[in-house]
Design brief:
This protein has 252 residues and is of the alpha/beta class. 44% of the residues lie in helices and 13% in strands. Helix 1 crosses helix 8, helix 6 runs parallel beside helix 7 and helix 8 runs parallel beside helix 9.
Length: 252
Amino acid sequence: MTENKPKPEVIPPTGIRFQLACLNDSYVVGRMAFLTKLSKLILPAGHWGGIDRSAGNQDPEQTSKPPLYLTFDDGPHPNTTPYLIELLEAAGVKGTFFLIGENVERYPDLVKQLHDAGHVIANHSYGHKFMPALKTSTIEREIVKMNDSVAAITEGAPTLFRPPYGLMDKRVAACLREQEMTAVYWGSASEDWLLPGADSVVRRVMRNMRPGLLIVLHEGALLKNQTVTAAKEIMFRSRDLGYQMQKVEVPA
């Protein structure tokens, strides 16, 4: 007769450093929640996530679970993109990658890998400039040149646009309409670009967890371990909570 051994008790992290980190996480989450509410009032119309209940062509297995949208900004980059492709493939997840045009031209093979893997390739401008400070002609060039860079590789231009730094004005919105594109904003921005560590990124995202959440993570030279580790943990935790990761698809 086998003896049923009790499972070891999971002891949560303690200590002053952990407590300070949690306090900082709470501050970041609260500040970003305030900025998000304010941004929804003053920024041009765009996609803030949520659930599209009108889409009748979705996979029934996906519609039975509340969706989450895993998005990545600032790629492609060799320190992050190949590892994210491998991670998402193993998890059976499709992501949405908001790429910078300069990086697209620098790493075309990575763009092709993203496209071939079935991920959404979206526009994050050509040079990641602060759009409201640009001339109208430069705004148009930032958007169109990025689209052309992608189309040269994938034979299809992006239809989604996320403004650098999350901010855009009416001139950007007008350009997007001309290009038949949709602005996509954010739902959970963990300030991962400040390198708080994967644990903090995960805690900040999980505190915001809700159906239809647009999760924003960043790519880059210094972000490999943090972004890949955080993405993996967020996927596993959200799946345990009954969520389904989906790529961003905005109805026309």
